[in-house]
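ok so I'm stuck.
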Amino acid sequence: MRQHYTFPSFLCLITAFGLFFPACKSDKKEAATPAGAPKKDVPLQVEGFKVISKNLAENLEVPGSLQPFEETEIRPEISGRLVSMNIQEGGAVAKGVLLAKLFDEDLQAQLKKLQVQLEIAQKTLERQQELLKIQGISQQEVDLSELQVNNIKADMELVKVNISKTEIRAPYAGQLGLRNVSLGAYVSPTTLLTTLRQMNRMKLDFTVPEKYGQLFGKGKTVHFTVAGSRRNFSATVLATEMAVAAETRSLKVRASVVDSDPALLPGTFAKVLLNTSGTGETLIAPTQAIIPQARGKKVVVFRGGKPEFQDVETGIRDEDFVQVLNGLSLGDTVVTTGLLAIRPGSKLVLKKVE
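replied:
not stuck anymore, here's the structure
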């Protein structure tokens, strides 16, 4: 049986559809808005900081390494067999002490032979000089005899130098390391016999970022600590490298350790504490107000309830504040909270200003 609709019933259906579709559109709009997101017409509550002028000092902690003031690898100058050794492992030696001796009997034999030749040549020269006084010989013969004497003396000096090369002596007073060879071994200039270190003085090597390089001139005092000791040691800067390392953009600094302690051993890792002492009155801002960018840095300045993104150039910093070199003026208010939610054109309300 076919059903018929009257005009009032049809009107009711149209009205129901009209009410249903706007409701769907309203639901879609509400679903498109993320839950908890601030509405455009609702101001965002933030905290701020009024830029002030202050003498800012930066405390840095950089890694360092302790080194002996002098360190030398003891190696022979020539090849030969070790006939005597005076290397007491870990012992202290004075400058010039004989550490090792190579076989030199062949050189000693050459020296004795030359000494005999020299005696004969000198006697011959003396006789010819007497004959020259009575015109019994020419001046040329006397000159040739004198030349022979001088040649023998030069050969003797050469042999003496070679003999001295068989003697390995301590170049300075210090402490010996471990012995790497035994008596009777055949050694060459590539053979490491032992290591000599000057332990009564130490030096400290560390690097600082390039922007602080000018602060660490000769004579500046730095402090450092090492594992195994609670002392705070001091060192005086000796010199800095003449160029900044291109790979790390840092400058190498070398200092002489003032203190002495059994805990200070070569190769020990040191924590170097650097106090830059400040550069006078300068503008500062909180570190959390700085927004890193791909190229440079920005801050959000509060101006009349609106945010203004401002490029800034920063300098040294400490735990709480950073030096602002360019981009801000004294008395500007920078935003310190809610930075991720702020967009150009956002409405801001300061709930706290430091």
